[in-house]
Design a protein that fits this description.
The two termini are about 40 Å apart. The chain has three domains: about 1-165, no CATH class; about 195-295, Ankyrin repeat-containing domain (Serine Threonine Protein Phosphatase 5, Tetratricopeptide repeat); about 300-395, TolA/TonB C-terminal domain, CATH 3.30.2420. The protein is built from 15 helices and 14 strands. It is globular, with a radius of gyration of 26 Å. The protein has helices at about 1-5, 50-65, 70-80, 135-150, 165, 200-205, 210-215, 230-240, 240-250, 270-275, 280-285, 290-295, 305-320, 325, 360-370, and strands at about 30-35, 35, 85-90, 95, 105, 115-120, 160-165, 300-305, 330-340, 345-350, 375, 375-380, 385, 385-395.
Length: about 400
């Protein structure tokens, strides 16, 4: 989770041609993640010296884009020389897009701001099939820059980000909510990986030999999140590399991920295995985490927003019919306690405390059972389970 709190200072401004919106001042104070020093995260993105290099590179690029002197190929090679693998992207009303610049990256939930060099804002409806042009000058630069990055043998994520014309059809999410996502990250077809691409690339390819050599060289790299926030173990799980995952687990890889990650982070190895419904891996990881950490994967029932709006309208009408009785007591808040089965159906409803009108309580619960729809609870393995749920309602003298 460090990126959301830490890396906004390293990203190019959304409108790269308007530099006034970006401050060049270094971050003030001791940067931290939930009270911990970022240097404890074991993450390259928490390396203040590296971040400073990124900031300087971004400032230089903004100036060159503004005066028209930016050379895309030279800038890409300069970034690769310093280990900066971020691609050029545009921000849109719905998230980050590299497709504006000819590249498709497959990441569950989309790209995060700190994974790209965002140089333009593309309005809604202008990002379609990689053919959009947020600005002719910037678009040409971005496409050439990204092409140079992907063509260079030093770029380690050619199996995660690919040219739009080589990406093929986007994967479809399973219609069955109980089915796992086959490959939440990247492309199944992998190219050649070099040793310098690191543990993550070796894990994605299931290269046990390379994993062993790289761990001997740098044992501390076993739980380092990469540009996308995934550790080598997370990549091994995401790419169905069970022998690689076993090798990493034997070497004491953490199922939680990096030092500053949590069990429920989207990029944590355990959470990825859960999204994929890969029960064997989850069982293998379970003894390596605390009961509390494992329990945090559980999901309570989640109400459907549209049904909740409908229920609120029904509640308003019901309160009007019982207005006299309800106003006899000061305004209060009441819990509607439900039991929800594996299919998301409400099997029981009880109001606590009871109101002044048993008839009102009975009708209210009846409406809730009839109207409110639930996504069922899931246990730590992602399996549907019966569970309790709660809604808070308020009525009385001032309502």
């Amino acid at each position: 989770m460090i990126g959301k709190r830490l890396l906004t200072a390293t990203i190019l401004c959304m409108g790269a041609l308007t530099t006034a919106a970006c401050s060049d001042d270094a971050p003030k104070g001791n940067l931290g993640v939930e009270g911990a020093s970022v240097t404890q995260c074991g993450d390259l993105r928490a390396d203040t010296a590296f971040l400073d290099k990124l900031r300087k590179g971004d400032r230089s690029l903004r100036r060159k884009l503004k005066d028209g002197s930016a050379n895309a190929v030279a800038e890409a090679h300069k970034a690769l020389d310093m280990g900066d693998f971020r691609l050029i992207a545009a921000t849109t009303p719905t998230g980050i897009s590299t497709e504006a610049y000819g590249v498709q990256c497959r990441m569950l939930g989309g790209l995060s701001p700190w994974t790209v060099r965002a140089v333009a804002f593309v309005p809604e409806g202008k990002v379609e099939g990689g053919q959009q042009k947020p600005d002719d000058t910037v678009t040409g630069f971005g496409r050439r820059y990204n092409a140079a990055m992907l063509a260079d043998s030093r770029y380690p994520y050619a199996d995660v980000c690919r040219a739009v014309d080589k990406a093929g059809p986007a994967p479809t999410m399973p219609d069955n909510p109980d089915a796992g996502i086959e490959q939440p990250y990247g492309f199944a077809e992998l190219g050649v990986a070099r040793m310098e691409h690191g543990l993550g690339a070796a894990a994605r390819r299931g290269s046990i030999r390379d994993i062993g050599i790289l761990l001997e060289r740098d044992p501390k790299g076993i739980d380092k999140p990469d540009l996308f926030g995934l550790t080598p173990l997370a990549w091994a799980v995401a790419y169905h590399r069970w022998p690689a995952a076993q090798a990493l687990l034997r070497a004491k890889a953490d199922p939680i991920g990096g030092t500053c990650q949590t069990t429920i982070d989207r990029q944590s190895p355990l959470q990825i295995a859960r999204v994929m419904r890969w029960y064997g891996v989850i069982r293998a990881m379970r003894p390596l985490v605390t009961e509390e950490q494992f329990a945090s994967l559980r999901q309570k029932p989640r109400w459907d927003d549209a049904s909740l709006v409908e229920f609120n309208h029904a509640l308003t009408e019901l309160k009007e019919r019982y207005d006299t009785q309800l106003k006899a007591k000061p305004f209060g808040r009441y819990d509607l306690n439900f039991q929800v089965d594996e299919q998301g159906n409400t099997t029981e409803c009880k109001m606590d405390p009871a109101s002044v009108s048993p008839a009102f309580d009975k009708e209210l619960c009846g409406l809730a059972v009839e109207i409110v729809r639930w996504a069922p609870a899931r246990d730590a393995f992602g399996t549907r389970v019966p569970e309790s749920a709660k809604l808070l309602v308020g009525f009385g003298g001032g309502s």
